[in-house]
Phospholipid-transporting ATPase (Astatotilapia calliptera), 1187 residues
Amino acid sequence: MTHLVCCVSAEEERRVRANDREYNEKFQYASNCIMTSKYNIITFLPVNLFEQFQEVANTYFLFLLILQLIPQISSLSWFTTIVPLALVLSITAVKDATDDYFRHKSDNQVNNRQSQVLIRGSLQNEKWMNVRVGDIIKLENNQFVAADLLLLSSTEPHGLCYIETAELDGETNMKVRQSVSVTSELGDPNNLASFDGEVVCEPPNNKLDRFSGTLYWREKKYSLTNQNMLLRGCVLRNTEACYGLVIFAGPDTKLMQNSGRTKFKRTSIDRLMNTLVLWIFGFLVCMGMILAVGNAGWEKEVGSLFQSYLAWDTPVNNFLFSAFLSFWSYVIILNTVVPISLYVSVEVIRLGHSYFINWDQQMFCSQCNTAAEARTTTLNEELGQVEYIFSDKTGTLTQNIMTFNKCSINGQSYGDLTDPLETQLDFSLFNPLADPDFCFYDDKLLESVKVGDSCTHEFFRLLSLCHTVMSEEKSEGELVYKAQSPDEGALVTAARNFGFVFRSRTPGTITTTEMGRTVTYSLLAILDFNNIRKRMSVIVRNPEGRIRLYCKGADTVLLERLHPCNQEVMSITSDHLNEYAADGLRTLALAYRDLSEDEWEAWSESHRFADKATDCREDRLAAAYEEVEQNMMLLGATAIEDKLQEGVPETIAVLSLANIKIWVLTGDKQETAVNIGYSCKMLTDDMTEVFIISGHTVQSVRQELRRARERMIELSRGSGGGVGKQLHGSPLPPPLPLSNLMDNISGEFALVINGHSLAHALEADMEAEFVSTACACKAVICCRVTPLQKAQVVELIKKRKKAVTLAIGDGANDISMIKSAHIGVGISGQEGIQAVLASDYSFSQFRFLQRLLLVHGRWSYLRMCRFLCYFFYKNFAFTMVHFWFGFFCGFSAQTVYDQYFITLFNIVYTSLPVLAMGIFDQDVPDHRSLEYPKLYEPGQLNLLFNKREFFICIAQGIYTSVVLFFVPYAVLSNATQSNGVPLADYQTFAVTTATALVIVVSVQIVLDTGFWTVFNHVFVWGSLGSYFIIMFALHSQTLFRIFPNQFHFVGSAQSTLLQPVVWLTIALATAICIVPVLAFRFLKLDLKPQLSDTVRYTQLVRQKRRKPPEGRLGARGGSRRSGYAFAHQEGFGELITSGKNMRLSSLALASFASRHSSSWIDTLRRKKHTHTPPSTSGEKTTRLSET
């Protein structure tokens, strides 16, 4: 029993026996039931109330309610607090219940999926939730994998199967999995029913690319790796069926382990409000103490004179105890400075903003039939304050679709469009096997093929032979290629259209159709690709017996392996490669070498020896490959376009103008990431310098970062500048005074850092250097980073820069980054939904990000700030009247207004107008927000609601309360009715003050509202009308007759509001409150207008907007930049030559800048970000190599 408890509490290893539920159940492994909901019918009420009372505000109001139940200290009825408190709790409970209902619905949908489970020798349909660890499951083509399975057997040869892992890592290319050889033949359910093997493996974890275990069966053991596993969330593709043993189920699966728990995210305004509420509570206590001291003095000096006929209440026996009770009474009365309705209103406004995002037709993708979705309602205003965006690359910036764009053959470049009206080539007449979807426009290349140019033919022959693509011919001439990487698919398809068609392969042959003639080559060897070699080769023998090596790879490694006679063509091709790279294309160089029979035999023997080596096998193979890949003849180069998502360069340009820094964090290689950086205009040839950090040690990374900073300072101060010279002359200068030097950086710099270098840069003693260097750059690209490193980079910027961060991605490898950032955005579409499930917002195209931030985010921040400023203003104006009245009522805790007005003021009379402003208000239209990105900067600097703005609102509220109390008090103290009866009574004063208050705050919101809708008109004038209707009803004789003890103001409203002096008093108070506000705003608009004021003025006086001139890309420099990028993985060459992935049926693996310069904003930005420099432009690329 002790052992069992230990396994459950801290699982160190997992033991699973096939087809033995009784054995597996003793370990109490998790079932396959997924539960993301929080409540059920029984637990909802107690758990939800417990959660709600974790909020300090709710506990505070409950405390006030308890105080109001004590008659000795309460001058207000208990319902003035319990009604709004119950309303808040109810609304929140309904919202939580609705959210949880949808979680239940989603859980049920997944848990009730059907799966075929082997039970007692036969396959039975079972719900996913009923699948248990140790069960054997049958999967069919295109089915989702129900749990983490050990692949036992497959309908494919050698126990192979093909899976798509889009929901796990965002990659749509196929991956191969293979069963252990001993179980690969157990394809029959009868054989599988008798399988009783036991698996001992690692406990549940979130590592998608690693699995370690051992299979024990028939007194033998077999090693298990990730290649033997099918993970939940994968989809079986191009495999008729397979069987798997459940190892991890439900919450233990790697998919769910990666999902984790979503961090509770709070906005900066939330955190500021918590601070302000504490300050207000302290202010409330101070006011209570002042009035309590006043009560003590009054009771001692004046109240004692009335003891003979007006004694103290029973528990009060001295003036000090009276003051103690008075303190608590005033705490109750003055608590409306922080009304509970504030929190309800904030949630309602956020909900409204979320629906606006969901309903935005301009963020709807018709191709995917996917709308934008706000998956949280608590972060909308934070969208208006983003300073850093962290983006994935593949599937987020790009479509992961490659197209053959240009090529260079024997010094001749093809694919350049000279005529923009040039039509697409029609290959169907020339080649019946051509792919109809292939696009190319340069007819010179097609003519070169037709006339039989030998170099052109050899170029496309190489592309048709040197690859690891699989082919399926579904019908005569209908070819479907399935490539391990989209690069390969694009190159083989290009060769196909130009007459060199790859038809099929066996482990030892490749069959092609060359210019209509079928040719079969003997495949002698595949020299596989890897990230160190950056090239792949094949050695083939043609039907005439000639042996030739074909090689394709990075120009940086291939050009140095050419025969010396290639100098002329290499020089021309290098220029072409430079041009292609400047256009952001992905390039490969192509070469060949003829081998004699003796050379082949000698090399084959050394290769065979290296392949069978038991130690240092990889190094020996690499040496063998290096030996034969020499003295090659250059054929040319290819240029492939990795298609960006629509509008990516424009979106990045607009966001940059809004002073948002964009970092790309990708698992791709440096070359691929840099090429995409140039394609999407994050990197440009106009940049002052691009720094590449690639050191492998802590010291080398530190030196490279330091030299980058030196270079920035040198370039920003001009060549020959004193600081630059001094720093450049020192071999290893002491740490720079970053706060002084980096603040003055001017120039457009970019930083590219590799994963191994980033690991050192993220260490505690180097964090500051890395952040200061990176944040001085306009663009940062981190390559070869792990999911954990993505999250660490985000956390580092959050900690060091105190800036609002946003992470956007599309795959499971982006989940940790999405959850770490203040705001997480998931890209929905073809690459899976795991990032979407972990995100706060989702949509299908990266280009929608500019509308989410610059329109919805900016509006949400503006609306929330205006709402909070007005809300605190009106409540201080409302509450502070009680404070002034205390000095005139003997500090007796008597209220100015009647209790019903106190209850209804924040719920009915003033709630809807401020809600309408908070939901619908806007300063400029959406298209102006996009046209003038600089409008976004006030949110980044938190200018619209901060401690200074809060104190201004409080001061205005206190000023209003002074006017609302003392003006009616001064006028009515000597006023009389027309019949001579004095008006100086408590009830007339209360009605006059309350009416003046409602009118003043209504006029104030009219002034604050910048965008009027039907709702604004209805709510403002409707609330004002409802005040008079409800007041006349509450002061009517009808209610007094029914409840004589509750309604003491009978007839007060009617008699008071019939007096002209009362209306003159209200008008005077309103004018004194509003006129200074109007005067201040007119002066501010005239003397110190904001950019939004200028935009509004421009909109009014100019019907036609003037677009800023488009910037022209600068000329390319003479710097050499390789455009090499090849999204390929090692291992497919060996798989092909082994024949393990061959099928009898040859089944394919188918399937503006601102016109108004706001110097005050720039000044504030420098104060806030002393480490963030402005940017200019220039050009150069530098590699900071290790010394």
Observations:
- DSSP finds 42 helices and 34 strands in the chain.
- The chain has a mean pLDDT of 83.
- The longest strand covers residues 398-409.
